[in-house]
């Protein structure tokens, strides 16, 4: 494990590429957490350095300080990734994605608001891991990002995702009950791809029917 580094105020500002005055301003705006105090000396660590670099990156992407402060608050109070993965274990087929806050902003531009971040956390899409954000599924991240780039507001994408979650839970229960009536619980992982194929085929046919109605 890497040794935890600590920095005096002047060294932290130099490493972050800002002035001491700017660092003081960020502290007053509560954009970074308080330092560790040792008498009259304030000690900062790599967490503070990462947060300062994130602030700089978000400012360069057009975010305001007020927006960054709201993002920082949502980020600090977000669900730990252990809440998403630790209890039930990692997803068996989905690949989690680690993101810095600025990388998340790159995916969703000005749609990466505190409200949308909180909604994604409530949905279980996002968790936090130190100074990084973890998305539960690369596929869902890519689809959400693609829809936003098509002009669909992220809030609506997340609202639709909540509805899809409800239907998906019902489909999973239906398939599980079907298998358990005729096989054992140990057969579920082996037969899981069959359930996914049925859902994908039925959704494809449903989209065909829906598009024909639009003609």
UniProtKB/TrEMBL annotation:
Q: Is Cell cycle one of the keywords UniProt gives this record?
A: no
Pfam families noted in UniProt: MerR_1
Q: Which PROSITE patterns match?
A: HTH_MERR_2
Query: What keywords is this UniProt entry annotated with?
Result: DNA-binding
InterPro entries for this protein: DNA-bd_dom_put_sf, MerR-type_HTH_dom, MerR_fam
Q: Where is the HTH merR-type domain?
A: 11-74
Keyword Nucleus applies = no
Q: What is this protein called?
A: MerR family transcriptional regulator
- Species this protein is from: Streptomyces violaceus (Streptomyces venezuelae)
């Amino acid at each position: 494990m890497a040794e935890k580094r600590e920095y005096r105020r002047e060294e932290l500002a130099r490493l972050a590429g800002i002035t001491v005055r700017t660092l003081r301003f960020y502290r007053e705006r509560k954009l970074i957490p308080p330092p560790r105090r040792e008498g009259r000396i304030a000690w900062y660590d790599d967490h503070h350095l990462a947060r300062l670099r994130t602030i700089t990156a978000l400012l360069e992407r057009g975010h305001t300080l007020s927006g960054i402060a709201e993002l920082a608050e949502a980020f600090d109070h977000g669900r730990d990734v252990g809440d998403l993965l630790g209890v039930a274990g990692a997803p068996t087929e989905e690949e989690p994605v680690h993101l810095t806050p600025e990388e998340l902003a790159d995916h969703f531009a000005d749609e990466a608001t505190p409200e949308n971040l909180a909604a994604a956390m409530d949905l279980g899409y996002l968790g936090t891991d130190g100074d990084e954000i973890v998305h539960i599924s690369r596929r869902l991240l890519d689809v959400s990002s693609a829809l936003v780039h098509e002009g669909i507001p992220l809030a609506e994408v997340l609202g639709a995702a909540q509805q899809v979650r409800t239907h998906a839970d019902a489909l999973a229960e239906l398939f599980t009950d079907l298998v358990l009536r005729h096989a054992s619980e140990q057969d579920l992982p082996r037969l899981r791809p069959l359930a996914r194929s049925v859902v994908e085929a039925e959704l494809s046919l449903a989209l065909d029917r829906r598009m024909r109605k639009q003609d």
